[in-house]
Amino acid sequence: MDKETTATRQVALPKMKVRDSRYRSTSSILHELTWFDGDSISVRDLSAQLGDRGFGLMLLLFALPNTIPLPIPGISTLTGMPLIFFASQLCLGKERIWLPSWLANRQIPMSKLRPLIQKPLPWLVRLEKLIKPRLDKITTRNFERFAGALILLLALLIALPIPLGNLPLGIAMAVLALAITERDGIVMITGWLLTFFALYFFAALITGYAWIIWQLVSSIF
Fold first, then answer.
1. Per the domain annotation, does 7 fall within a domain?
2. Does residue 134 have a pLDDT over 70?
3. 202, 124, 188, 123: which is closest to 158 by C-alpha?
4. Which DSSP string corresponds to 33-46?
5. Rounded to two decimals, what is the model's pTM?
6. How many domains does the chain have?
7. Considering all CA atoms of the chain, what is the largest pairwise distance in Å, rounded to the nearest integer?
8. Which residues contact 120 (CB under 8 A, 6 or more apart)?
9. Domain contains 103
10. Containing structural domain, residue 90
């Protein structure tokens, strides 16, 4: 890679408020993933690229694609299993991510991963201007485990092929994951509220579809 290309990429990085010299914003870490030169990246290499930000950043990475209003077909299948797996570990109180070989070696095509990171990235950059570590009593390990349980529930629901149901679930998961990553209690509380709304919306959607199906069946018979 020549110096000109490197300089161009450095300029393209989102300009974020740096809290100290060791801190890199979540958006800049995700942005750097789009530079990966290979045709695909394994989940093991992906975890290594994300560094020591732990469960929160891995959950955020796989939750963000589900926040796109017009998602790519099959995206819930691509992201669902990692979300369930990582959220389960967080819920059980694991301190480090453990990757079994079948998941660690799973290849994610960069042609799919790159646009899924790039599309929600501007929203994340704007949101990060409002985020900072606060209300540390709401971001303790036990509250992180509770957030992991909520993300697990949302990930299980998002795997169901329910039209129009994924967006609220994906937004709630992304906000909870961002709260864990940035240790922001206000964002954590917001994630709880969004989870309640997403579950209510999902239940209403299921009820509505069931009523429509019942009416169609009744009209036939």
1. no
2. yes
3. 202
4. HTT--SSEEEHHHH
5. 0.76
6. 1
7. 72
8. 64, 65, 67, 68, 174
9. yes
10. 23-220
